[in-house]
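Hello K.,

You asked for the raw outputs rather than the summary table, so here they are, unedited. I folded two proteins back to back in the same session to keep the settings identical. This is the first:
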Amino acid sequence: MQMQKSEWERKVNELAALRKIVMAINSRIDDLDQVVHIILEKACELVSAAHGSLMLFNAETNSLHIAAVVGDRWTPEKRACILRAGEGITGWVVATGQPYLCADTKNDKHYFPLFEGVSSELAVPVISQGKTLGVINLDSERLSAFSLADMELMGMLADHAAMAIENARQHALNRLARDRWLRIFDALPAAVALLDGDFVVERTNHRFLTFFGLAVEQVAGYSVNEVLKQVPVPKPNETWKECLASGLPIQYYFQKETDSPYYTFRVIQVPREEKPLYLLSVCEGLFIGPGSNVPPEDGGMGWGL
């Protein structure tokens, strides 16, 4: 009866730990260090390990480096440890893609000593879509400190670690792509604004603000009709949506003042599967090209070509 109660308590603790890890992964997609630290912390707590580490695998150098640690006595020298695939228990795990349970380090040919007094070690691969991303490694000063049940549990935690790593990497790639796109967007010579499906301004470049003499707080989140109310250009309406959805741009010419240069006012729909997104641009000169021209009766001052 006591054994059954102990096993039940263990399962409850495991489920609680897994729940906290899943919550951390979902809420901290951009904070991989924090998520991995929680995973290692819970791993050490559940199996009473002295130290825990996550080593990430670099396929180009065929080596492992420590990305996160839990426990005492982690000096800068120890954290700088690098192992090649096949070197030590951790290297063996990354080379084979299999977990490894070491009951006695003194009698294990694969053991690589990092801490004094370590008697047993458990290492499990972190795998995503058949690709080994790294290894979770735990150790203890006790002989035979880890069981097959511990190894199975660590495998579950490793799956969550793989999810966190892949999510964080994809988030970082998306952020880099977004930052690159925004740099290009802001550097465009034309005055440009992004509009949502209801013609509300989501973002403008610097040229748009200076061209119309507006501040950011006067633009973002406002209807383009409100933003351009002082400008002699026709305002978007439902008919525009039909034209834009058909692939034709809205095109119109105007002058800011009498005797000033002509400008081309142009709106296109950005291809996307989600809600429509529109790109509004204003550039000096007359743009020669196909378009849905705005008639004078809609408030226009001229026709597109």
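The second followed immediately with the same parameters:
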Amino acid sequence: MRYYTGVFCILEYIDMANGYGRAVAGSGTGAMRLGFGAATFALVVGSAVYGEVVHGYGLLRKGDPDFTPFGRARIGFSALAALLLYFALRPVIQILPVRIEDRNRVMVGIVLAAAFLLAVAAAVLFVPTALNDYVREMQPLGMATEVLLIAAIGSLLMAAWGARGKREGRLLAIFPPALVLTGMAGVVFLILMEEMSWGQHWIGWATPELFSRNVQNETNLHNFYTYQFEAIYYTSAIFCFIVMPWCWLRGAGAFSAQVEPYLPSRFFALMALPVASLMYEAWNIVPYQVWYFLGLMIGVDIARRIQPARLRAAAFGLVIVYALTMLVFLFGGEAMVDGYELSEVREFYIAFLFLAFGGMLMERFSGKTPVFRQTKAHQED
């Protein structure tokens, strides 16, 4: 818990000393932000290389969480790297008011994320071996993941249909909204097909010779290099659903304005927080540790700024659940059968976020919600 306490104290000290958004990292020059980013990169690379050379840890090596003196030191360096990255990306905002008509929706997202984390933590504590039976291929959780991805594709295609006549919001001043949204649906379709091994799980054909080197003997690409593909997938989800919604500059011009119509609100980042958690055997991977601590800091940052008070209390409650359930995963996960169960649960939650994101875009581009409503309402200070 001392890592969590240190994070809270450092953030509070900087705000008290300098004023939010005017601390060294909050509203500093671009060069200073780049400096914090470079320091983050150096810490992560240094920690990973030292672990590889001195202790034989591969960058993406999985295993039981390491709490040896070296493992604890590396956790500290990861927390520091996350803090520097937080400074490099932190937006200059004072408060985050939630519109009256959106408050129930935001509350539902916060409660859902907290309830999901608590439910998974309860499973790890009380039925850790049973969890394995639900996460394997063609078992309830895996099938539910595929269903959610199918629904997400449908929602993104419906958003594209609703945007077919719109000409504003061209990405890179070239691609119209309908094409961008169709492209998003295509990306989720590829994820679905890889998840289903392009239908092999359902139809049951023999794995072709071309895929003989596949780790799980399946007709897909990601299991040729499972850990690498997982790192790309999880990092992309954390970046798109947590980091970008939190740090992206609202109400600006040029490229920022072109991206904003496709971006979730900052409150979406709270609902997405479980994606930066839900790990046991992957905890020793330095970038995942950094993402976890950055998610903690983002949660605290949004919780301190969100209004009204009942949403602030709920958001802080979620942050506490996020921290405590991670301790359950790390110290109780050894009772699970294989150790990868939480990764499968994380993929289920990512699929849910794809669906929630698609529903948001469907509403935004259907004409029910002005496409640029968020831009006008959340101008940066």
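The mean pLDDT is 85.

Happy to rerun anything if the numbers look odd on your end.

Regards,
P.
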